[in-house]
Amino acid sequence: MEKGYSVVVGIDEAGRGPLAGPVVAAACHLGEQVKITGIDDSKKLTKVKRERIFQELTEDPYVSYGVGIMGPEVIDKVNIFQATILAMKQAVENHPLTPDYLLVDGLQLPSEIPSKKIVKGDTLSLFIAAASILAKVTRDRLMLEYDQKWPMYGFKRNMGYGTREHLEALKEYGPSPIHRESFKPKALFACHN
């Protein structure tokens, strides 16, 4: 806990790299009474462990969190970096408590609230690691919903990342409404315009 601050919030995001879907950020505060085990960088956890910890985080009365989501239309309008900043700010705004200090994974967040950028923060801060799990599972669940609407892209397997299967589907079907036009592999999208 940062000295002299009572509501320290960890912030992380999921989904900066995919070709489709939103970027999702979470802001998380863990009360001293929280006894959840296994919290770690979401990328280091199995899907089963992430889901278990996500459920515990969202059900624990001593955990408070907010989520921010910026869709492809925002990403295309302002760029992925700015959309990530907007998602993080929205996550802080949606946090039920008013944070007095922010720990941010990997980037400097412009904010009136004092903050600290921590490179590899999801491995160094429990609060950021918890936020990384909340962001990742929230985004994965959205991508599973999108897979129901557009199963041809294999979102349930690739979560919107540019796998071979996904790129081949783009070549065959063109982009869906949740594809990021600004990320387009130009040759693939060109024949569908």
Protein described:
The protein has one domain: Nucleotidyltransferase, domain 5, CATH 3.30.420. The protein has 193 residues and is an alpha/beta fold. The chain has 8 helices and 5 strands; from the N terminus they run ββαβααββααααα. A 5-stranded mixed β-sheet has the order 3-2-1-4-5.
Q: Averaged pLDDT, please? A: 93
Extract low-pLDDT stretches: none
Share of helix among residues? 40-55%
Radius of gyration: 17 Å
Outline the biggest β-sheet. 5 strands, mixed
Q: Count the E strands.
A: 5
Strand content: 15-25%
CATH superfamily: Ribonuclease H-like superfamily/Ribonuclease H
User: Number of helical segments?
Assistant: 8
CATH class: Alpha Beta
Strands in their spatial order, largest beta sheet: 3-2-1-4-5
Assembly status? single chain
CATH architecture: 2-Layer Sandwich
- The name CATH uses for the topology is Nucleotidyltransferase, domain 5
Please state the structural category.
Answer: alpha/beta
Tally of separate domains: 1
User: Which of globular, elongated, flat, extended, rod-shaped describes the shape?
Assistant: globular
